Amino acid sequence: MTLLAVEAISRSFAGHTVLRDISFTVQAGESVGIIGRSGAGKSTLLRCLNALERPDTGRILFEGQDLAHLPEKQLVLLRRKIGVVFQHFNLLSSRTVAANIALPLEIAGMPKAQRQERVAELLHLVGLEEHARKYPALLSGGQKQRVGIARALAANPALLLCDEATSALDPETTTSILDLLNQINKTLGLTLVFITHEMDVVRQLGHRVLVLEQGTIVADGPPADILKPDNALSSVKGAGYVASYS
Amino acid sequence: MSRLILELLLRATGETLEMVLASGFIAVLGGLPLAVFLTLTGPSGLCRMPWLNRPLGFLIDAVRAVPFIILLVLLIPFTRIVAGTSLGTEAAIVPLSVAAIPYFARIAEVSLQEVDSGLIEAVRAMGGTRWMIVRYVLLPESLPSLISGFTVTLVTLVGASAMAGAIGAGGLGDLAIRYGYQRFNTTVMLGVVAVLIVLVTGLQALGNLLSRTLRHDAPMRGA
Ligand SMILES: Nc1ncnc2c1ncn2[C@@H]1O[C@H](COP(=O)(O)OP(=O)(O)OP(=O)(O)O)[C@@H](O)[C@H]1O
Ligand SMILES: [Mg+2]
User: Fold this and answer.
1) Would you say the CB of residue A160 lies under 6 angstroms from ligand 1?
2) What is the CA radius of gyration of chain B?
């Protein structure tokens, strides 16, 4: 079943074209990686997928609704079905771990008792039960990202978007976060679209990878094919790979 | 120090506190919504409205540009309408508030603008409305900084209220002028200065403590 269909979207900022005629579909349960150089338009594309950014042309069909043309009022409601995990976590410093995870539920208007139950479930899922009442400032990067993931999952989204979710973490922590995301994708069947600069992340997490270059998709296929060393495109990805460590 | 002088000081301190706290309260009531509005409609805000933001910003700065002692005199007719009289402690609350609202609005605006834009993006991505972003992000995240700004406002009001004393508002300024300046009573003058110092340092210490207690964005020092 197709969960998301991107049909020929373009986006430019002040005459500078950032996304050019992009089309692809994402099946329910699939895990799709997006790679490409810095400035290729990856984040802009992801922001279009959860309607924080509107494409100038084209359509984005999510559960049968067109994100590109829906009025803002309906977009607000639709965003509640799409979770986002950020590179820099973006946790509210004024709220405890539990209260951060509860925020999407508060926004959705869930009653308090139900909310507490759901937050307990999520704390268990990400293994942070004993940190529930702490403030994010006291957590390590990996723990903060676990909170970020729990928060993104709170409202039972149909789609999870990750913009360089592991870029701020050390290799070991990255592995544990990837395991968690893999588990979420496999056991919960949650559809995943993620951006990364690390080829290991693509190999471990992606069923499929899109390579973005100057706003266009130049390759789309399984990681094993795309990331082959003798692939004509490997230089492009090599550059991205090196950039992430420089 | 005679008993009379102590009583005078005590009453004057009470009047000063009344002026400062009442106009401080009104400054938050009026200034905070203005600050939120300025932030939302500003150049990097969530609902940019330059045609409203700029004139409002101009009006706020225009009021701030007028020296308080002149504002005091200019506002006498307005004060009469609002308070029924232009004399006394209650009447002085009117010009003090008029000066404090734009003052606090600008200070609070800075606090609100310092909130990490990533947090706003996160709550927008969760499907939060603009009102939810104000309620869940802007206000709670800037609260410690808002309290620091409010403390600065209160301290400024202590000084301004002493000036209001010059036109018969009562309070410590009034006392210092009537006894200290006009009758050369040095004891009263020094007493007033001492009370003002205690008042200002006390307010500042209280503000710092409250702000620090509510700040959770950095690991606790010494913990
Ligand atoms: N709101 C905006 N206004 C103007 N230009 C923008 C805006 N958002 C993105 N851009 C531009 O679009 C281009 C692509 O940005 P984007 O953030 O999508 O790149 P990216 O592929 O995510 O890069 P990185 O790997 O560094 O995160 C950049 O040149 C950027 O300056
Ligand atoms: Mg990016």
Assistant:
1) no
2) 20
Least confident of A160-169, A183-192, B49-58, B163-172: B163-172
Q: Give the pLDDT score at A242.
A: 36
Q: A88 CB under 6 A from ligand 1? A: no
* CB atoms B119 and A103 under 8 Å: no
Q: Tokens representing B160?
A: 């301004």
**Token duo for residue A193:** 């679209």
- The answer on A245 and A192 residing in a single domain is yes
A54 touches chain B (CB under 8 A): no
Structure token pair of residue A123:
């704390």
CB–CB contact A93 B217 (8 Å): yes
Supply the pLDDT for residue A231: 57
CATH number of the domain residue B62 falls in: 1.10.3720.10
Closest CB to A52 among B124, B216, B217: B124
pTM of the model: 0.91
Burial class (CB in 10 A: 0-12, 13-18, 19+), A82: buried
* Number of domains into which chain B is organized: 1
ipTM given for this complex: 0.90
Tell me, yes or no, whether A19 and A54 share the same domain. Answer: yes
